[in-house]
Amino acid sequence: MAKRKATPTPKAKSRTQKPSKGAARKPKAKASKPAKPSPKKKGPAQKTGGKKSARKTPSKAKLPAKTKSVTKAPAKKTPKGAGKEEKKQDVATKKRTSSRSRSSVLDRDFLIALANSIREAVQPAIEAAKGREVIGNAASGDATFQLDRLAEKALLTFLRDAKLPVAYYSEDSGYTTFTSGQPENLLVIDPIDGTRAAKSGFEWCVVAIASTRVIERPRIADVDNALVMELMGPRTFYAERGKGTRIYVDGQYRKPKLSKNTDLETVVWSMTVPARPAELIFPTAAKLVDLTSLKGGFYACNSTSYSLTRLITNQLDASIDIANRYYRDIPAIVQDLFINAGRGAILGIAPYDIAASLLIAEEAGCVVTDAYGKSLSEVLLLDSATANHQSMVAAANAELHETLLGFFDTRIRQYERLLERRAERNMP
């Protein structure tokens, strides 16, 4: 209270601090409520000018409410364990907030220039259907082709020449930084998503770039903006969190178009298949494949980013990758199937596969979850370990997503029970 009495000496502050006199007669706990007369005076301005402050005001208004509930509840119920966990979460949140406040979102033109440099490096080889040689394996266990090496080299050259305080993570190179100090931005890059299509000259391949200002243990929800550029087509997709998605075709801006189709018989959809055990995913999807193959359409696709971006061009109604749910549900029974399909490695959707395209799809209005119906926002962005692989059910509208989620949930449960009975019969 001594500080409040000392501050009214300047004339400019004397009016705004009059409410503190009334607050002096009341306990501190209640002082926080009367201490908001100034917003009442500015209330009309906030309502009339709500368009400008609407995006900022809700986020600031919600944070105190969450902090209050978090600090009070654990003190009454679980004082020790929950308190420590909440402190860790608070520290992590503060680190994310502080890192974002210190730096700005990477410019869209920078991301476009980076993607263009990769496209220019690999496009001649794609058009000539070259670069098919397998030259190694990535850290995830996926095959690395000569095309991947060309793309990675173009990526490194561009970032070295840019001389910006950035770090990047890619499938082949892992985590790399180009600054001696603390990076201000982190790029998560898949230089070629859909290499198997690219090496054969097909168009189902893209460059996918996600950017975040959270350097330490970022999550998918921490991605600030993202860009996906077609390697063999004219489209570039760009999204910034909270600001929607844009499609650029030969420099011209176009709005996303989402399918409103909810009729399963006419659904046009894709399923990701590389290194997913065919004897698991195709029996699971068989009824839907048969139902949609005449009036709708089914496509086996090798690029998750390509499939997700087709949702906002109205070319696909849905995109599915349900294999990882089997590995999470019954690992002991299906592990050998995954190892065989991956030729020694267990593969699935790694976060870098979807970091960019997921933001673009969601900002356009698509609904994307894992095969359990859970949001992917809390998935760690740089963890490509098998335990962090994901499944996916994505649809252009909420009703179709719910229908497909229910269909695959039922089919997976049925097939898992069948596999479990077979395993029991085969036990010695």
Rg calc: 26 Å
Percent strand? 15-25%
Shape: globular
CATH class of the largest domain: Alpha Beta
**Count of DSSP strands:** 15
The major sheet is characterized as:
8 strands, mixed
Mean pLDDT score: 80
Number of helices: 18
Summarize the structure.
The chain is built from 18 helices and 15 strands. With 428 residues, it is an alpha+beta fold.
Keywords:
Fructose-1,6-Bisphosphatase, Chain A, domain 1; D-Maltodextrin-Binding Protein, domain 2; globular; 428 residues; alpha+beta; disordered N terminus; 18 helices
What would your notes on this structure say?
The chain has helices at about 1-5, 10-15, 20-25, 30, 35-40, 45-50, 50-55, 55-75, 80-100, 110-125, 145-160, 195-200, 280-290, 305-310, 325-330, 330-340, 350-365, 400-425, and strands at about 135, 145, 165-170, 175, 185-195, 205-210, 225-230, 235-240, 245-250, 250-255, 270, 295-300, 320, 365-370, 390-395. It has about 425 residues and is α+β, with helices and mostly antiparallel strands. It folds into two domains: about 110-255, Fructose-1,6-Bisphosphatase, subunit A, domain 1 (Fructose-1,6-Bisphosphatase, Chain A, domain 1, 2-Layer Sandwich), CATH 3.30.540; about 265-425, D-Maltodextrin-Binding Protein, domain 2, CATH 3.40.190. An eight-stranded mixed beta sheet has the order 4-3-5-6-7-8-9-10, with helices on both faces. Strands 12-11-13-15-14 form a five-stranded mixed beta sheet, with helices on both faces. Strands 1-2 form a two-stranded antiparallel ribbon. A hairpin with a 4-residue loop joins strand 8 and strand 9 (about 245-250). Helix 10 runs antiparallel to helix 11 (about 145-160).
